[in-house]
Design brief:
By secondary structure, the chain is mainly alpha-helical. The chain has helices at 19-44, 50-70, 99-105, 119-129, 141-148, 158-162, 177-189, 201-204, 208-223, 226-240, 244-263, 267-281, 288-301, 304-316, 322-332, 337-346, 350-364, 380-393, 396-403, 411-423, 442-454, 461-468, 471-474, 478-492, 497-505, 512-528, 532-544, 547-568; strands at 6-7, 73-78, 81-84, 87-91, 108-113, 153-157. It is built from 28 helices and six strands. The longest helix is centred in the first third of the chain and has 26 residues, at 19-44. It is elongated and about 135 Å long.
Length: 569
């Protein structure tokens, strides 16, 4: 059964009772099973549903047979169980949809069913006592039962048991409360059923305002989260505990609870705990050794489990606002820089990534060297994130740390360094671009050349002339070689025209494929030169050069015009 319900499982063993008692208990167990089945049916189906009608008919039949044979069906109510003449028929430890708990909470201690009860009356009783409806008013079970006028259902309240004076029970002293309940219900069975019950006295004592206040108080209590109470208790304990060993124990418990709350998705409660630990860290009156312990616990909280949970919460929900994330990461602080950098690589939402970057800048700007250990991390994406943060921090220290990665084994890291050098406003960053002219990756070499040309970095002219004359360049791809000479043309102006002319007219250069490629490089460079001498040389070569040279020039000019049109579009 749902919610750990058990019907008849705890009844006394058959061998311990007379045969008649065993048969009566067996009959009561069957009635209880039918009662629970009908209660679920009332909760699940509409009143005219055939399944519910069948359940109620079976309950009416079994209860009627039991009443006809044994005269009564009393149920003794405990918080989590219902018993019949001392034998437990029903137990449910779950607080949700708990028939016994709902009756007991409203003061009912005994429920009695009388002969003549029918399915409609049973359905009304179960609709009131069996479960709560969200659209139902806030009257308690006692008030609703009284208002329903159920002639074959009676009940005893707790105060009725205390002050009962209408029942005379003779004989020896009652051995136990359970035996007393059994005797009271037997006596009740001998009385005629009353059509209705008097309103309990405690309800008559409440005014409308008092009842409204009480109703709101009960609702507020029902909405309380147990985690809030636990957090409040832990916070109060840590704030007041004097014994160092107890402080360490409670701090460790707080850290473990915070981890569990993060992992289970209860981020607001976890953040409340972390915020409190951060406040403890900031107390000047807290001894240094305790402050150190709190710092250690905060570091343990921000481990892999919490990283995964935070990334999942941020990527898949809106449970954590930008402000909350900013506050949370600042509490974890400098000791968790590595974890925060790791989190940056796992977050997909751009706005939340910006928050993490802002926190890293805020934590690391005063001391960029704090990021140095993470630049040697084997995870390239973490190093990339650190480079991004250092680039935004800026300054000589950050520049030195970033430039140190220009020979990093991972090309994606070197690309980030190159982008930083291209965008940095610091003039001292520009000369480091020359390192990339001999990078292992052709794409990065070409990118560096285009940056140098675009920014008109004249200090690069001499190294580029040396590169153009080297054997190394001859082994690089044609596209890269063209870019080298175009960059020379951009930077050298009239200074490089003689070099290009020599490449075009010198004997032995213009031979077959190799010579043709050299001519193409020279023409590409001339087309980038912003000087009249370059245009004059091209015109001269068109008139006096060989047909093959003229074809190379025309092809290069057409290609340039095509690129210009594409860029303009």
């Amino acid at each position: 059964m749902d919610h750990q319900e058990r019907s008849g499982q705890t009844a006394k063993a058959p061998g311990t009772q007379p045969d008649h008692a065993q048969e009566e208990l067996r009959s009561a167990t069957e009635v209880m099973a039918a009662l629970l089945r009908s209660a679920k049916g009332v909760r699940t189906y509409l009143a005219n549903n055939p399944v519910l009608v069948k359940y109620l008919e079976e309950l009416e039949e079994k209860l009627g047979a039991h009443l006809a044979r044994y005269g009564s069906f009393p149920l003794e109510v405990e918080p989590f169980s219902l018993s019949y003449r001392g034998s437990e028929l029903y137990r449910n430890e779950d607080r949700r949809d708990n028939l016994a708990l709902r009756l007991h909470a409203d003061g009912i201690r005994v429920v009695q069913f009388a002969s003549g009860i029918q399915g409609a009356e049973l359905a009304t009783f179960l609709d009131i006592a069996g479960f709560e409806r969200p659209d139902r008013d806030d009257d308690d079970v006692v008030t609703r039962l009284w208002g329903a006028h159920l002639p074959h259902v009676s009940y005893l309240l707790e105060e009725d048991l205390v002050g009962i004076d209408t029942l005379v029970i003779e004989g020896e002293a009652v051995a136990s409360q359970q035996e007393a309940l059994s005797e009271i219900t037997t006596a009740l069975a001998e009385q005629p059923a009353t059509p209705q019950q008097m309103i309990p006295k405690h309800l008559l004592m409440l005014t409308a305002d008092e009842a409204g206040w009480l109703r709101k108080a009960v609702q507020a209590d029902a909405r309380r989260n147990p985690a809030d109470d636990v957090i409040s208790i832990l916070a109060a304990t840590l704030a007041g505990v004097q014994d160092p060993a107890s402080f360490e124990d409670f701090t460790a418990v707080t850290g473990k609870l915070a981890i569990d709350l993060f992992v289970t998705g209860q981020v607001p409660h976890a953040q409340r705990l972390v915020r409190f630990l951060g406040q403890l860290m900031g107390l000047g009156s807290l001894p240094a050794e305790r402050r150190q312990k709190v710092g250690e616990v905060l570091g343990e909280i921000f481990g892999e489990e919490v990283l995964q949970a935070l990334a999942r919460t941020i990527n898949e929900t809106d449970a954590l606002s930008r402000e909350d994330l900013h506050e949370l990461l600042l509490v974890f602080g400098v000791p968790s820089l590595g974890g925060i950098c790791e989190l940056l690589g796992r977050i997909e939402k751009l706005k939340m990534r910006k928050v993490v970057i802002e926190v890293l800048i805020e934590l690391g700007a005063p001391r960029p060297e704090l990021f140095a250990p993470f630049l040697a991390d084997p995870r390239w994406y973490l190093v990339r994130n650190v480079v991004l943060v250092l680039a935004l921090i800026g300054g000589p220290k950050a520049l030195k740390m970033i430039v140190g990665l220009s020979t990093h084994r991972e090309a994606r890291i070197r690309r980030e360094v190159l982008n930083f050098l291209a965008q940095s406003p610091d003039p001292k960053a520009r000369p480091y671009l020359l390192k990339f002219l001999r990078d292992d990756a052709s794409a990065l070499r070409v990118r560096a050349l285009k940056i140098i040309a675009q920014q008109q970095l004249s200090f690069a002219l001499k190294p580029l002339l040396a590169l153009a004359a080297s054997e190394e360049l001859k082994h690089r791809g044609m596209e890269e070689r063209l870019v080298v000479f175009e960059t020379l043309g951009e930077l050298g102006a009239g200074q490089v025209v003689p070099l290009f002319k020599e490449m075009l007219v010198k004997k032995g250069w213009f031979k077959r494929a190799v010579s043709r490629e050299s001519a193409q490089c020279a023409v590409a460079g001339l087309l980038k030169v912003r000087h009249d001498s370059a245009r004059q040389l091209l015109d001269e070569l068109r008139r006096q050069g060989s047909s093959e040279l003229r074809a190379v020039i025309d092809q290069a000019v057409q290609a340039r015009h095509g690129d210009a049109g594409t860029n303009a579009a």
